[in-house]
């Protein structure tokens, strides 16, 4: 039978406050003498890291494990070795733990590594300035670190992803501080890290904006320790006075003289908080608990100790034992305090009476009926605060007993507590070695615990807990797959195809079996690629559903064609463009276009998308693309398009000649080749014409008809005739052009001479029509007589010469036409003249 919970209780002097020391693990012979080592402990029941203290002599021949000074060893709280690695990066200045149980090691050159519990690490630097000046000290907290350089400046790093260090406000130090500490950002109202520096008799508080002197007179201080909630500070002076103040230095909480402790030997080793309302002061073999009012409880150990502040207490490690010292929780105190008359104590007593079949059970339940629901809740909560499963079961059974007397009670808390205790008992087992309390578990969340188990490669336990708590197993499966790849790497040095197939099928089968549908195969494939398993990475990517996850890794792996095929198959045009542009920048031009050409119909959409993009954004790429693909017609059309917006004559002529060359290389495009040849000759003629006229006229880029018209208008008839001859312009078109040009400049004499020069190939009716259209009806009359006789009457009428129209009808004897003209004539005077002509024809 487990010892009663009150067996480890010790009361403060006031008799109302109790603290207990719970032995978590017995670790005789598993740990070295801690006083010979520099130790860093991880919160939330995490491991401890040890490095030999080079300033101390180490006795040989001990039976305890010996860690050389060039090594760091990590132990679980149960004393089990988790990790051992050598350090070869210069002098270590500081090491500590992140929130996710990764060990951060910083050297004097500002280089820091972040190790997981498998020995894998990422390396970062504080920058060249820190490397040049050197780092002399640092403080590491859950989500970052603050480093003190040799120039006495402070550098802050946020997160563990290699962020750029930020320089905090100038602390104004002339020498290194006597002691210093930090308050993490999540415990500050400003949400910025705050550095506390003990110098001379005062303390400076430094953040990213300012340096404030708190104007204290009791320093200097040897230890500065902020409480877990960041509201209080514990300060230890050189004279041995322990002084507790509020973190803003406005309130004095308590004072205590550590020099009057008879059992204490030597100087104070550590000053740590036990929760938020008590302190732990440690010497070589003594741990002293100091209460809020200066009351003390001593705890003696057979060897040196190391204390780790926890959220709800303090964990004390020694070479023999791992203990948890904490204030007895209120619910536990209510149930088990001797002489307690609380409802929860009476309920527990009633349950014990019920088990003994005593009628006192019913009497006790009746007496607390109004407070029975509260009593049940306290028993449930007290069960969560107990370490031994025996007392957990008893308290839950008492709660279950009391619940039976309630008409309405929500059992959710009861069920959740039962699940939580099963999980906590599983991870507290010494082979796992995570002594997590209910308060810590509730604060850190189950998913955080799952992550800690996977970092230890305890995948089976993590999966079972995930399933038990109805959590998605994705994170566990992903870590398991990566670990399996790492483990199989050594077994298959050649990484043959059969080995890759076996590992891939095992991973896929496990995912399908355990429901890891949301796990990204791409992330696992990336791990395989990083360890040199390219074939395995490719096979894993075949199972990835999201093209956006597949493609970037394939590109990184230089699987260019496969990446492009996956991008095309995804139907995501943005992804296809991403691959195309990435390959265009990385590959030689010939290799890039050959890749597209060899893709055949499967990569046809990529070809089309590249063409669309290049047409809008990069025509040089489009030109190279057409040329490499031997697409002559498209190349010619591209040259023609470019020529349309070119202003410089020689460039435009060259572009048209290039189009002619491309068309001429295709036997089916002879017509287009001829057109480009003619157009090129026309542009050359126009350019020459403009140069001969010193820019007075601008014919470049005009059509052939417009160019001839421009020559005629500007009195260059010979040039117009030469263009007609060179480009074999038909006579009809030339006559039309010259007719309009001479009319435009009102050269009616020239027009008459042109009409008489030879027989008009277009007849003379166009002359009449055009002159009438332009408002020169009187000049058009001279050309009517040269027109065909049936049309003369109407043409005369259009020119406004109605009498001549009537005479023409009379000469032809066309009485019908004359009558028609009579009806159309505009006034009565002209009508009488036409009537006279008409009467003379009778």
Automatic annotation (TrEMBL):
Q: Identify the keywords attached in UniProt to this record, alphabetized.
A: Protein transport, Transport
Coiled-coil annotated residue ranges, if any: none
Checking SUPFAM superfamilies in the record gives: Tricorn protease domain 2 (SSF69322)
Domain (Vps16 N-terminal) ranges: 5-415
Q: Which InterPro entries match?
A: VPS16, Vps16_C, Vps16_C_sf, Vps16_N
A Gene Ontology cellular-component term: endosome
The family database entries (Gene3D superfamilies) matched by this protein are listed as: Vps16, C-terminal region
Q: What is the protein name given in its UniProt record?
A: Probable vacuolar protein sorting-associated protein 16 homolog
Q: Which organism is it from?
A: Ephemerocybe angulata
């Amino acid at each position: 039978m487990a010892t009663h919970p009150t067996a480890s209780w010790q009361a403060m002097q006031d008799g109302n406050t109790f603290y207990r020391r719970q032995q978590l693990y017995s670790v005789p012979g598993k740990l070295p003498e801690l006083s010979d080592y520099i130790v860093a402990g991880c919160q939330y029941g995490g491991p401890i890291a040890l490095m030999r203290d080079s300033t101390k002599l180490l006795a040989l021949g001990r039976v305890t494990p010996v860690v050389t000074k060039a090594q760091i060893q990590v132990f679980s709280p149960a004393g089990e070795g988790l990790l051992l690695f050598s350090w070869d990066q210069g002098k270590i200045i500081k090491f500590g733990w992140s929130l996710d149980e990764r060990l951060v090691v910083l050297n004097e050159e500002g280089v820091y590594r972040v190790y997981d519990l498998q020995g894998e690490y990422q390396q970062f630097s504080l920058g060249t300035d820190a490397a040049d000046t050197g780092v002399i000290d640092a403080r590491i907290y859950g989500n970052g670190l603050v480093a003190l350089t040799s120039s006495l400046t402070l550098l802050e790093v946020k997160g563990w992803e290699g962020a750029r260090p930020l320089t905090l406000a100038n602390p104004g130090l002339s020498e290194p501080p006597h002691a210093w500490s930090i308050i993490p950002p999540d415990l500050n109202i400003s949400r910025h890290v705050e550095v506390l520096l003990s110098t001379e008799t005062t303390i400076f508080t430094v953040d990213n904006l300012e340096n404030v002197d708190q104007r204290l007179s009791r320093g200097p201080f040897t230890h500065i320790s902020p409480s877990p909630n960041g509201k209080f500070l514990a300060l230890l002076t050189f004279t041995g006075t322990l002084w507790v103040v509020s973190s803003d230095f406005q309130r004095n909480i308590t004072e205590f003289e550590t020099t009057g402790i008879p059992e204490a030997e030597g100087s104070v080793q550590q000053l740590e908080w036990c929760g938020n309302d008590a302190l732990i002061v440690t010497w070589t073999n003594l741990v002293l608990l100091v209460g809020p009012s200066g009351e003390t409880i001593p705890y003696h150990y057979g060897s040196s100790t190391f204390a780790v502040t926890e959220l709800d207490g303090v964990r004390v490690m020694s070479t023999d034992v791992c203990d948890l010292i904490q204030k007895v929780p209120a619910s536990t105190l209510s149930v088990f305090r001797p002489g307690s008359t609380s409802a929860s104590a009476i309920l527990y007593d009633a349950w014990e009476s019920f088990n003994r079949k005593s009628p006192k059970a019913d009497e006790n339940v009746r007496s607390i009926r109004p407070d029975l629901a509260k009593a049940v809740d306290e028993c449930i909560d007290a069960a969560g605060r107990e370490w031994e499963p025996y007392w957990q079961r008893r308290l839950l059974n008492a709660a279950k007993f009391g619940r039976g007397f309630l008409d309405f009670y929500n059992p959710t808390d009861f069920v959740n507590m039962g699940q939580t205790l099963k999980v906590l008992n599983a991870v507290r087992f010494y082979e796992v070695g995570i002594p997590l309390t209910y308060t810590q578990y509730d604060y850190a969340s189950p998913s955080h615990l799952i992550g800690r188990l996977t970092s230890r490669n305890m995948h089976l336990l993590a999966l079972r807990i995930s399933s038990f708590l109805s959590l998605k197993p994705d994170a566990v499966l992903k870590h398991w797959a990566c670990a399996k790849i790492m483990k199989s790497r050594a077994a298959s040095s050649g990484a043959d195809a059969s080995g890759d197939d076996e590992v891939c099928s095992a991973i896929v089968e496990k995912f399908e079996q355990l429901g890891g549908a949301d796990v990204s195969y791409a992330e696992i494939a990336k791990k395989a690629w990083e360890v040199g398993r390219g074939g395995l990475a490719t096979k894993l990517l075949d199972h990835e559903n999201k093209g956006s996850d597949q493609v970037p890794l394939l590109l990184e792996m230089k699987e260019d064609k496969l990446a492009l095929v996956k991008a095309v198959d995804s139907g995501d045009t943005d992804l296809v463009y991403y691959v195309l542009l990435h390959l265009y920048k990385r590959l030689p031009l010939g290799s890039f276009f050959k890749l597209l050409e060899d893709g055949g119909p499967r990569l046809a959409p990529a070809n089309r998308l590249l063409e669309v993009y290049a047409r809008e954004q990069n025509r040089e790429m489009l030109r190279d693309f057409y040329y490499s693909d031997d697409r002559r017609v498209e190349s010619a059309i591209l040259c023609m398009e470019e020529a349309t917006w070119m202003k410089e004559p020689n460039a435009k002529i060259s572009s048209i000649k290039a189009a002619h060359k491309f068309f001429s290389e295709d036997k089916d495009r002879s017509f287009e080749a001829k057109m480009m040849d003619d157009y090129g000759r026309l542009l050359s003629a126009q350019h020459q014409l403009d140069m001969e006229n010193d820019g007075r006229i601008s014919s470049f880029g005009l059509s052939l008809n417009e160019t001839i018209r421009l020559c005629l208008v500007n009195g260059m008839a010979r040039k117009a005739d030469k263009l007609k001859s060179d480009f074999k312009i038909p006579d009809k078109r030339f006559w039309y052009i010259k007719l309009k040009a001479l009319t435009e400049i009102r050269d009616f004499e020239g027009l008459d001479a042109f009409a008489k020069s030879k027989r008009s190939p277009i007849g003379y009716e166009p002359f009449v029509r055009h002159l009438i259209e332009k408002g020169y009806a009187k000049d058009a009359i001279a050309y009517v007589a040269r027109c065909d006789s049936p049309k003369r009457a109407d043409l005369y009428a259009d020119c406004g010469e109605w009498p001549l129209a009537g005479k023409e009808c009379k000469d032809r004897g066309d009485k019908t036409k004359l009558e028609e003209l009579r009806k159309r004539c505009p006034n009565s005077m002209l009508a009488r003249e036409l009537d006279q002509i008409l009467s003379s024809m009778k």
